[in-house]
Write a structure and sequence with these properties.
single chain; 119 residues; mainly alpha; 5 helices; 85% helix
Amino acid sequence: MINAITSGITGLILVAVPGFVANLFATSNTTVLVGVGIFLVAFAAMVFITSLQHPLSGKTVSLIVVLDALWVLTSLGIIMLQLLDVSTLGYFLIGGVAAWVALMAYLQFNAMRQLSTKE
């Protein structure tokens, strides 16, 4: 549930105030930020709906873990290769979000594994 909440809040911020976020990243490109925000809101909705299912859908939880892992790997690639023209703070924020998403993936993966061993 916390993944849904944090992803949703981040997505809403990116959609509602892209100019503010763009200033933090020292970029003028708000279109990408809005696109990422829309993705995050949709992702948050999927995670929230999945969290309400009983029993949980193992396939959907696996998809969420894979999407989180892809987010982390993409973020690390962006940081290591300096693929974006953003500020140091922007790269720091990308890394911080990636660390949070990695934690979410880890916790979800472990929870999914524990559920499967109980069955």
